[in-house]
Write a structure and sequence with these properties.
The structure holds two protein chains of two kinds. Chain A is an alpha+beta fold. Chain A folds into four domains: 37-319, Beta-Lactamase (2-Layer Sandwich), CATH 3.30.450; 412-562, 2-Layer Sandwich (Alpha-Beta Plaits), CATH 3.30.70; 588-845, EAL domain (TIM Barrel); 864-972, Beta-Lactamase, CATH 3.30.450. Chain A contains 29 helices and 32 strands. In chain A, the strands form five sheets. In chain A, strands 17-18-20-21-22-23-24-25 form an eight-stranded mixed β-barrel, surrounded by five helices. The radius of gyration of chain A is 71 Å and the shape is elongated. The model of chain A is unreliable at 855-863 (pLDDT under 50). Chain B has 21 helices and 20 strands. In chain B, strands 11, 12, 13, 14, 15, 16, 17 and 18 form an eight-stranded mixed beta sheet that branches. A four-stranded mixed beta sheet of chain B has the order 1-10-9-8. In chain B, a hairpin with a 5-residue loop joins β2 (91-95) and β3. In chain B, α14 packs antiparallel against α16 (410-425) and α18 packs antiparallel against α20 (487-496). Chain B is globular, with a radius of gyration of 26 Å. Residues 1-52 of chain B have low confidence and may be disordered. Classes of the chains: A alpha+beta, B alpha+beta. At the A-B interface, α2 and β5 of A face α12, α14 and α16 of B.
């Protein structure tokens, strides 16, 4: 981890370093160029200075020789020369006569003498001259050859033997270049360096002027100076540390060089020089550098008017030495300053960040839960850190408070101040041990107020809370503060022992009655004694609650012990929940179908799917056992959707087998609607199967609807709007409210089987059923009655217009395979053609005890409820008439009128007479069309019969139509 | 603020330059300051011709020049460099590829000469403008010729004199040049008093350069002195005249004959020979005239490093020794002949000029139209000379003053000395008298010099230029201190001009030449010379004018560094 101190210090130091670096770079670039320029200028200056002093010297030599030459030329007489054959066209001595030559010689003699005097006097006055001479060219004269003087000692010159130029060897450039060069150049020029054989073989340079007269070269005047003399001023040049100057002649031969031999020719290309460059006379502004033996050197040069080249050379390292020194010192200084700064900054940052560091430590300790950190005296400054410290202190205090509060809340119930569940478990565990140690039997009580929800609704939550609070006080007063806990709303857990338990409870019940000023609720208590086995507190609580739950439906204060049977139930429930998935996937749960039969034709018009759990371990588990468990755990949807899948699967098989498909009803629980969007799940599955939605009917119980009415109404309407018929199951089983029928338009009402169970217990059940049928019929709702077990029941239900029947009379719930078997064996009636369903439904709906079926007037004087008009439902195809349904009055009437019931129940035109039968047949025929209503009078042997025939329905498949026949009046003869 | 400006003046200048560059470019040259307040109508267009000169003049072609008192070519007989480079003539005399010499069109693109040789119809070149933008018209030519005659300081009247009415105009007897007729802007007719075959040649002389009437008229005395007013049609424009230093000329980019090949021309004023030599050695000048260097010229003529830039040129001129016939005993033809015969002219040429030339025997030198190679040679015969002296009555010779002006070249001086020596040998007591130039000229023009030597270089390519100058009439011959007496001969010289037949005219010139030189020994012809020039290494395109004169046009020369 890098501390702030480290970061700030390093950032600042980096900033300083970068600034120095940039500054250094900028300075470097500027000074570097400046240094280059100034070094060139300086070296040029040195070269120029030397050049000037040299040129002054050279000029003095040149002037001396020129002066002599001028005098010599003047002293030659053009006329003598021309007259004696020295003309531009004929300079050769051969063209001259001896006489002419001697005249020339004579003239030359005086000329030479004059020149000799002049040159000698000039030479002695000129510095450094080692020799001077005048050679007359051999073609001018071989007699007068001129003169040659060379210096002897330091003082004077001595005349030397005259040189015979014709003897000179042109190849011996070391010694004779002066002559041949001049003969070639034909102009005044400098020659050398070359070796003077007459003067100790020293290296010399010469200035030579050819003497012309009348366009002819007469001779050469020259002066020699030793290279040493020239070198004097060059040798003295020292600059930088080892900078030096050297001199080359116009052919780059060394005149003077501190390390090279005079007369050698160095490779100028090595020095980055070229003849091209030399032609510019000086290097000017140009920076010339070259590398020899790993040393980079800089060079400046200048060309003297003599053609000689003066070079000044210095190593670049020395040129830049001052600058390099400056850079070094600057860098060292910068390093020192930076280091110093770094140290100061580090110390300063330590001082600045110390409070921060302390604060950081404090935070760390705070994070570890230490709220006792003392910081108040640490840092009181008013800067950011001070503010931070104070804020931190404040935060620490507040956090401490909050944590304490939270801790309290964590173990206490805010409403009652009792220990909360978690805390209670700890306390109870200890308490239970204590009780056992005392040799007593601990028990856990589950204490529950009955109807708290309604209480809250009735009296408001404040009142509810008040009641709970007071109850808690009562409980605490009986069992002690640490033995009572409120687990939720109105659920309390209590630890106590068995001794005097029930008496104590009675006292509690008594006190509770008067809680909240008597505006109280009864209580239920479940007791889990320790006797059934040592469990943890949580399990004991669950068991107590289970026991308490068994009191459901009790509305007075009561208590119940958890016993062995409950233990079994609990274990069963657990088994069911643990194995429901397996039961489904491994088809332990099977679908049984109970046929529902049309009363009007005795054919199966519906099948109710029912679940059977055939467990490989436990054998058959009753739906009454597993369905409530699944409902309670909200897992029922798994079962129901599985059921639906199985139904659709069966339908598919039936369809494949070419069988008539009838509506299948599926039971749904309230829990189905809560767990998933069951409506959509069903729709998806049915749609996917390709069957029409109407083939699946949904059965919901009345209680299921009642719990959350508007929600369920909405769900039912959704189902219906999707095309699923919705049935009300078990109507009349619980506390039925007719409200439901008013608000929800069920497609069918299934009457609970207890109507059938009490069928023979007097007429009440029948009357209620009759009226309920009438009610359903009037509402246009189809009906089915379950639990049909006898023929009486079938007849009665048929008469009162119950259109469908279900029960063991027809069949118990059986697997699909068995149903197939039974149908084929004839022990089970066949399936109804669904296309005829409406027809038979219409027939079946007619209540033959309903006067309204005949007139709209209600019977007023019927002492016997069932002593109604004789009514029958007749089917006819126009040729024959068959009484398919009739009431008891009709049967009685027929026996009275015709003496024989059987004969009159089915007859055809072939068997009836004009007087009897034909009028009914005609009337029935006329009533084949909808809404028709015919009154007929028949004169039968026993009397006159006044009847009403009314249209009911037409079978769309067979064309047979049904109508109601009611005997309105019978006058016996 | 002032300091601040000074400190940042470079930057400010730079910014200003950027900002007002368009303004700068529209007024590149200062307005001419003439004598009158009226600015010239063409001054605003001068910027078209005068570009911003290159401030670094080192690339300019540079030559030595004597500082002129004026460059008004009508009023000088020597300072013609400006006339030749800034102005043009109607025609030019040019050396042809076959070494012949011809008159070629210049400002006049064509002309027709009448059969009688009296009228010339000239046609000016179209579209020629002076460097100030003013177009060249016939009236400019008329103005030029009129001014040539009327200008009080004119010394080139001879050019225009053949024109009808010119003399009258010169004398102030007429206002108009009668022989000049403007036909239209570009055509005019010149009628001569008498036929004059050399007329066209005369018009090619520097003195016949054409002026811009309006500018020159407005300039008045400033013409020839102030660069702003000295404008011509030629390849250069005078940019600056720095007294004591030189004249800078810049190219006339709009010149009708094309811009010059060099970036500029620098005429440096120098009279010191040694200085010129040093300057040449330092590459400061591009052309060195070896004539001025004395024996030092030998080093250039022979020097190894100069051989590829050494030019040898025949000078169409003649060196002569004038003898004044009005002086006794020079009035005696025998004496004059003795003087002729006693001179070993070949020896003189060898000794003085190292034999670089040709000995001449007449008046018209080698290379000139009308030169007669068949003239009898004047021999070196001192014995005959002595005999003639004796015959003339001077056996012991006589006193003779050979005048030499102090500004003479070394060679001239030597020549004089040697001539005197040769005459001394036959007993003539000749001596040299050095007099200053002014005095010398005054005496010469007044016919007072007894004897002197000089060289006449052709102005135009016609014998007339020589014979008429020295023997054309009394005035001319007196002006040269020859004082020739034979009026008849002189009349014939004048009349020879009007001979329209070329052959006859040349024949007459030959007869006259022989009469004057061989018979009358009116002067001593010496030789025509070869001249030598060395050029700088950077110079290209060096040629020499037809007459070998150092005065030349530089427009076709260029330097390497351009």
């Amino acid at each position: 981890m890098h501390s702030i101190r480290f970061k700030i210090t390093s950032i600042t130091v980096s900033a300083i370093l970068i600034s120095i670096l940039l500054m250094f770079l900028a300075t470097y670039l500027t000074v570097h160029e400046e240094n280059d320029n100034s070094s060139v200028q300086r070296m040029n200056l040195i070269a120029d200075d030397t050049k000037k002093s040299l040129e002054i010297y050279f000029e003095s030599i040149e002037q001396s020789v020129e002066m002599t030459a001028n005098i010599a030329v003047d002293s030659l007489d053009s006329i003598i020369l021309v007259e004696n054959g020295i003309t531009p066209s004929a300079a050769s001595s051969l063209a001259r006569t001896d006489e002419q030559q001697s005249r020339i010689d004579a003239h030359l003699s005086s000329h030479i003498k004059k020149t000799e005097e002049t040159l000698a006097s000039v030479a002695t006055r000129t510095h450094g001259v080692v020799s001077f001479y005048y050679y007359i060219l051999p073609e001018i004269s071989e007699n007068e050859r001129g003169f040659f003087y060379s210096r002897v000692g330091k003082s004077g010159y001595e005349k030397q033997a005259q040189l015979i130029v014709s003897d000179l060897d042109a190849d011996d450039t070391e010694h004779t270049s002066w002559y041949f060069l001049t003969m070639q150049r034909c102009r005044p020029s400098w020659a050398g360096p070359y070796v003077d054989p007459y003067n100790d073989n020293i290296w010399i340079c010469s200035y030579l002027i050819p003497v012309y007269k009348v366009g002819t070269m007469i001779g050469i005047i020259g002066m020699d100076i030793p290279v040493d003399t020239l070198a004097e001023s060059v040798r003295e040049i020292h600059f930088y540390k080892s900078g030096f100057a050297c001199m080359l002649n116009d052919h780059n031969r060394v005149i003077y060089h501190p390390s090279l031999e005079t007369g050698t020719t160095p490779d100028i290309k090595m020095m980055s020089l070229t003849d091209e460059l030399f032609r510019q006379k000086t290097n000017g502004e140009e920076l010339i550098r070259f590398n020899t033996n790993g040393v980079l050197r800089q060079i400046s040069f200048t060309t003297l008017t003599t053609g000689m080249r003066l070079l000044v050379i210095a190593p670049v390292s020395e040129i830049t030495a001052t600058w390099t020194q400056l850079v070094h010192s600057t860098l060292i200084l910068a390093a020192i300053i930076t280091a110093l700064f770094a140290v100061i900054l580090f110390v300063l940052m330590d001082v600045l960040t110390m409070p921060l560091k302390k604060l950081t430590d404090a935070s760390r300790r705070l994070a570890d839960g230490d709220y006792s950190i003392g910081l108040d005296s640490e840092y009181k400054s008013n800067d950011e850190i001070g503010t931070l410290t104070r804020a931190f202190t404040r935060m620490r205090d507040q956090m401490g408070e909050y944590i304490a509060d939270l801790n309290h809340r964590a173990i206490t119930d805010t409403l009652t101040g009792l220990p909360n569940m978690r805390h209670f478990f700890t306390l109870a565990e200890a308490g239970r041990s204590k009780i056992k140690e005392a040799g007593r039997h601990p028990v856990i009580l589950f204490f529950n107020l009955v109807g708290m929800k309604y209480y809250n609704r009735q009296y408001s939550f404040e009142e509810g809370d008040k009641l709970i609070y007071e109850i808690s006080k009562i409980l605490v007063s009986h069992y002690g503060e640490n033995n009572v806990s409120r687990f939720s709303q109105d659920h309390f857990a209590i630890l106590t022992d068995e001794e005097g338990l029930e008496e104590e409870l009675q006292d509690v019940f008594e006190e509770c009655k008067y809680a909240n000023n008597g505006r109280s609720l009864p209580v239920r208590v479940g007791i889990c004694p320790n006797r059934l086995g040592e469990t943890n507190i949580s399990t004991a609580y669950d068991r107590a609650k289970y026991a308490c739950d068994q009191l459901r439906g009790t509305y007075v204060s009561d208590y119940r012990f958890f016993d062995l049977s409950m233990l079994t139930q609990v274990e069963n429930s657990r088994y069911i929940l643990n194995h429901i998935d397996q039961a489904i996937s491994e088809h332990w749960i099977q679908v049984y179908y109970q046929p529902i039969v049309r009363a009007a034709n005795g054919l199966i018009c519906d099948e109710e799917a029912l679940a059977r759990w055939i467990d490989p371990v436990k054998g058959m588990i009753s739906p009454g056992e597993f369905i409530p468990v699944l409902e309670q755990s909200k897992l029922i949807y798994k079962l129901d959707l599985y059921m639906l899948d199985m139904i659709l699967d069966k339908l598919k098989r039936k369809k494949e087998m070419g069988m008539t498909l009838v509506s299948q009803s599926l039971n749904l629980s309230r829990a189905d609607f809560c767990s998933v969007d069951i409506v959509d799940e069903i729709r998806r599955r049915v749609d996917a199967s390709g069957f029409p939605r109407s083939i699946i009917s949904i059965e919901v119980t009345e209680s299921c609807v009642g719990s959350d009415f508007s929600f369920m109404k909405n769900q039912i309407e959704r189902l219906q709007s999707l095309g699923f018929p919705v049935w009300m199951d078990d109507f009349g089983s619980g506390y039925s409210s007719l409200d439901v029928l008013q608000d929800i338009r069920f497609d069918l009402i299934k009457f609970d089987m207890h109507f059938m169970h009490r069928f023979n217990d007097g007429d009440e059940s029948k009357i209620i059923l009759t009226q309920l049928m009438k009610l359903a019929s009037s509402l246009g709702v189809d009906t089915v009655t379950e639990g049909v077990e006898s023929k009486d029941q079938v007849e009665f239900l048929s008469e009162i217009g119950c259109s469908k029947l279900q029960g063991y009379y027809y069949s118990r719930p059986i697997p699909f395979e068995e149903m197939l078997e039974r149908i084929s064996s004839g022990t089970l009636t066949d399936f109804e053609n669904p296309e005829e369903a409406d027809y038979y439904s219409a027939i079946g709906r007619i209540s033959l005890y309903d006067l309204g079926a005949v007139t709209n007037d209600s019977g007023d004087d019927m002492s016997d409820f069932f002593d109604t008009l004789p009514m029958a439902v007749a089917e006819s195809d126009g040729f024959y008439v068959k009484i398919v349904r009739c009431n008891k009055s009709y049967r009685d009437f027929m026996i009275r009128a015709f003496g024989d019931l059987q004969k009159e129940m089915e007859f055809s035109r072939a068997t009836v007479s004009e007087e009897i039968g034909i009028p009914l047949l005609d009337a029935v025929y006329q009533c084949r069309s909808e809404g028709a209503r015919i009154f007929i009078d028949e004169d039968v042997p026993s009397g006159y019969i006044h009847s009403l025939v009314r249209h009911i329905a037409v079978n769309p498949v067979t064309g047979i139509y049904a109508c109601l026949v009611a005997v309105l009046e019978y006058i016996g003869k | 603020m002032k300091r601040l400006v000074a400190k940042y003046n470079f930057i400010i200048f730079f910014l200003l330059a950027l900002l007002i560059q368009p303004a700068f470019s529209s007024c590149s040259m200062p307005q001419p300051t003439g004598p009158s307040d009226n600015s010239t109508p063409y001054s605003h267009t001068s910027s078209d011709a005068v570009q911003n000169p290159i401030s670094d003049t080192s690339s300019y072609l540079t030559v030595i020049e004597d500082e002129p008192d004026t460059v008004d070519f009508q009023c000088t007989s020597i300072h013609y460099t400006i006339a030749l480079n800034v102005f043009n003539r109607l025609v030019e005399t040019e050396k042809q590829p076959d070494d012949g010499i011809a008159i070629v069109p210049s400002l006049a693109s064509a002309w027709e000469e009448s059969e009688d040789g009296l009228t010339y119809d000239f046609h000016l070149r179209e579209g020629v403008t002076f460097s100030n933008g003013s177009p060249l018209t016939s009236s400019d030519v008329l103005y030029t010729l009129t001014r040539l005659m009327k200008h009080p300081d004119s010394c080139n009247q001879a050019i225009a004199e053949p024109i009808k009415g010119a003399k009258a105009l010169g004398r102030g007897e007429a206002d108009q040049l009668e022989g000049f007729e403007i036909i239209d802007d570009l055509s005019f007719r010149i009628t001569l008093e008498q036929p004059f075959e050399a007329f066209l040649s005369c018009l090619s002389m520097a003195g016949a350069s054409i002026l811009d009437e309006e500018t020159t008229e407005t300039a008045g005395a400033s013409f020839g002195l102030d660069p702003e007013w000295t404008v011509g049609t030629g390849p250069f424009i005078i940019w600056k005249w720095l007294p004591g230093e030189g004249i800078l000329l810049i190219p006339n980019e709009n010149c009708w004959s094309g811009a010059p090949r060099c970036s500029g021309l620098r005429l440096l004023f120098t009279t010191e020979d040694a200085e010129a030599r040093l300057m040449f050695e330092n590459n400061e000048i591009d052309i060195l005239d070896l004539d001025e260097l004395g024996y030092y010229s030998e080093y250039y003529i022979h020097g190894d490093i100069y051989q590829d830039r050494l030019y040898q040129v025949r000078q169409t001129g003649i060196s002569y020794i004038a003898l004044n016939e009005s002086v006794t005993p020079l009035n005696d033809v025998r004496v004059r002949k003795a003087l002729q015969l006693s001179l070993n002219r070949s020896l003189l040429l060898d000794a003085v000029y190292s034999g670089r030339g040709t000995v001449e025997n007449g008046i018209y030198p080698n290379g000139l139209y009308g030169h007669n190679p068949d003239l009898p040679e004047i021999p070196y015969d001192p014995d005959e000379a002595r005999r003639l002296l004796m015959e003339a009555g001077y056996p012991d010779g006589f006193e003779l003053t050979f005048s030499v002006k102090n500004s003479s070249t070394q060679s001239e001086t030597i020549l004089a000395k040697m001539a005197v020596q040769m005459w001394n040998k036959i007993g003539i007591k000749a001596s040299i008298k050095v007099i200053n130039e002014e005095e010398f000229m005054r005496c010469r023009k007044s016919g007072l010099l007894e004897c002197y030597t000089a060289t006449w270089i052709a102005d135009y390519n016609d014998p007339d230029n020589f014979i008429y100058t020295f023997f054309g009439n009394d005035a001319n011959t007196t002006y040269r201190s020859i004082c020739y007496k034979d009026e008849k001969v002189m009349a014939r010289v004048g009349a020879a001009r009007t001979i329209t037949d070329h052959e006859k005219r040349l024949e007459e010139y030959h007869l006259l030449e022989e009469k004057i030189v061989q018979e009358d020994a009116a002067w001593i012809p010496l030789f025509s010379r070869l001249r030598y020039y060395v050029t700088s290494e950077r110079l290209n395109g060096f040629t020499v004018p037809w007459n070998g004169s150092v005065k030349r046009t530089y427009s076709r020369l260029s330097t390497d560094n351009e």
